[in-house]
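Data card: per-record layout.
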Amino acid sequence: MREYSAQLLNLTYYPYDLMTMYGGMFLAGNLQAGYSATVLPDLETGSDYWPLMDKPMIADGRRMALRFLLSFYMNHPAVAMRRSALERAGGYGVSPDHLGDLVTLPRVMMLGKVAYDPRLSAIYRIHANRTSTTTQKALRARLAHNSYTDLVKWFNERMPGWEDLFRSELSTIPLKQLYRVLVHFVGYGAPVELTRIVWERFRQGEANKLRLYRKILTKIGLKNTLRLLLGIQRKVR
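The structure for this 237-residue chain is written out next.
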């Protein structure tokens, strides 16, 4: 099985035992609206062209785990996890108060290397009756808040220096993409540790502070902007 898997993934040049997870790109959408996918760039060079090379990217699992907070670039139908790594990560998150994929995948990723394959591995159909659509907004916000809170606690305990690594990852991401991240973090009540670091990236990347606040107000509204700024101020003190 090991030799077959290594041959299948074209990973014979890499120590297979060091990998905790394999994941592939997936399409999301439906026949009426069309399909789209989020594909990670090369984490080392930032290049968007590496998917054309038609081979997996081997990446530091810690970076992949932090990237997962910003974009769900892998989905369960396109993921295979090493059982021993999953057990070390505390097993699959089955609590009804959490989002299972959000709390499980990053915990496994950070334990070693991750093989990310840009080739199509699964198709995710978006429809009106899916759980993420029918679940009440307040419940979705509570589940996301609990999941992010537990992940930050996990990072604090098992990934020293994760904040600096997170800042490094954010520095490679365009501000336009980070606005969506900030809207998600604020809307779902992510821990202030996360929103503060994203906010720092905005302040560094946008020279015109008046324009920055105007954009933030447009994206998340006055109430959420005040909540964001007050939460950051309390944490700093």
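Known properties of this structure: The mean pLDDT is 78. The first strand starts at residue 19 and ends at 30.

See the next section for split statistics.
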